[in-house]
């Protein structure tokens, strides 16, 4: 009788371990696939060619007639959304960090540049797509 108990207990331990390993492996694969999908995401917005700086959702679009640059609007200090341009600087409302229009910090506490995104204008120049 006790021999059967040990056998059943051992079987359950091994089966539980295998199920756990399979679940961990499947979760890792799922997470990896979702991360790769997230990395290939793109967003499209209406484009206003008459504005040099546009704040759209979590992004800042700069159009200086020669090129279009897109940045994350998340301040590199603690992540507040930058939503103001003044005298050629992008201003964070939380702790006063300032960035030039190339996205480089010119006043702290932030010391890292804003994240840049590849921007593509539609052929009719009415929409802009960012690869995020
Ligand atoms: S979050 Fe922007 S300065 Fe602190």
Going across the biggest sheet, name each strand in turn.
1-10-9-4-3-2
CATH architecture of the largest domain: 3-layer Sandwich
Q: How much of the residues is beta strand, in percent?
A: 25-35%
Helix content: 25-40%
Record field, number of beta strands = 10
Distance between the termini: 63 Å
Radius of gyration: 25 Å
Given the helix and strand composition, which structural class is it? alpha+beta
Choose one word for the global shape: elongated
Q: What count of domains describes the coordinates? A: 2
Bound molecules: FE2/S2 (inorganic) cluster
Major sheet attributes: 6 strands, antiparallel
Compute the average pLDDT. 82
Topology pattern, helix = H, strand = E:
HEEEEEEEEEE
CATH superfamily of the largest domain: Rieske [2Fe-2S] iron-sulphur domain
The first-level CATH class name of the largest domain: Mainly Beta
Number of helices: 1
How would you describe this structure to a colleague?
- The protein is α+β, with helices and mostly antiparallel strands and 132 residues long.
- The strands form two sheets. A six-stranded antiparallel β-sheet has the order 1-10-9-4-3-2, with no helix packed on it. A four-stranded antiparallel β-sheet has the order 5-6-7-8, with no helix packed on it.
- Strand 6 and strand 7 form a beta hairpin.
- The longest helix has 38 residues.
- The protein starts with a helix and ends with a strand.
- The structure holds FE2/S2 (inorganic) cluster.
């Amino acid at each position: 009788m006790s021999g059967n108990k040990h056998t059943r207990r051992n079987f359950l331990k091994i089966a539980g371990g295998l199920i756990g390993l399979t679940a961990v492996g499947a979760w890792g694969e799922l997470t990896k696939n979702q991360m790769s999908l997230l990395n290939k995401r793109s967003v499209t917005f209406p484009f206003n060619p008459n504005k040099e700086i546009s704040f759209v959702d979590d992004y800042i679009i700069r159009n200086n007639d020669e090129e279009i640059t897109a940045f994350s609007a998340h301040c590199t200090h603690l992540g507040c959304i930058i939503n103001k341009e003044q005298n050629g600087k992008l201003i964070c409302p939380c702790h006063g960090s300032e960035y030039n229009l190339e996205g480089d910090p010119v006043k702290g506490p932030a010391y890292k540049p804003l994240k840049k995104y590849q921007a593509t204008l539609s052929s009719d120049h009415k929409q802009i797509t960012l690869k995020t």
